[in-house]
Design a protein that fits this description.
single chain; 213 residues; alpha/beta; four-stranded mixed β-sheet; 7 helices
């Protein structure tokens, strides 16, 4: 089919500030350098590539804790993701610090439901255009996940899975008249919650895939 186009979406999550590869059975595995090499290889070999990160870039290594995520965000800048959503550990250093770190990021960070005084703290979604295709990404983090870490007093109401589905409906319906080719939910709510969220989605909303952390 002459109008058929290939889209490759790369995905990683839960790096937790752990940048170094480890030797497993005499082979190196993990680490930013190997991840970067793979992402760059696919970007070079394929025409239409988007790289998404679904949360928890921060908190887990001595380096990340010492620099409160700033070192991590600079390394993420070198990876050049196309879109990132927030995980629960992104708020470990406080919401005010997270908003500062966002200013250091040279990539878009999305989250549809983190608020302060009912004001959304991040953009809820983003449309990435590649080779004439429009790909809609929506970022979701639920209160059940965020409650696993310390709660910042600056945070307002958060969504459960049912309310998250309502938020997805609002965003998708806002683009009913626009030619969106592919819709991705970029979540950090866990696999079981992703399945619950998927069951609540109306096919008419046009969500094609959930990429979760």
């Amino acid at each position: 089919m002459k109008n058929l186009k290939k889209l490759t979406i790369l995905h990683s999550n839960d790096m937790h500030g752990d940048f170094l590869a480890e030797k497993v059975d005499d082979k190196l595995t993990g680490g930013v350098s190997m991840l970067s090499g793979y992402v760059n290889q696919v970007r070079h070999e394929e025409e239409n590539v988007l790289y998404a990160i679904s949360g928890d870039m921060f908190r887990g290594s001595v380096i990340d804790s010492e620099y409160r995520g700033i070192s991590t965000i600079e390394i993420m800048n070198l990876l050049s993701p196309d879109v990132v959503t927030l995980g629960n550990h992104e708020v470990d250093y406080g919401v005010a610090h997270l908003l500062f770190i966002e200013k250091c990021a040279r990539f878009p960070i999305i989250n549809a439901n983190m608020t302060n005084n009912q004001v959304r703290l991040f953009r809820s979604h983003i449309i990435k255009e590649v080779d004439g295709m429009k790909v809609l990404f929506i970022g979701i983090l639920t209160k059940e996940v965020l409650n696993q870490t310390k709660q910042d007093t600056l945070l307002g109401s958060l969504l459960d899975v049912h309310e998250a589905a309502d938020e997805v409906e609002k965003i998708c319906n806002a683009y009913q008249t626009e030619d969106i080719d592919f819709t991705v939910l970029l979540t950090h709510i866990g696999f079981e919650a992703d399945k619950k969220l998927a069951a609540l989605l109306d096919p008419n909303w046009g969500v094609d895939i959930i990429i979760g952390g």
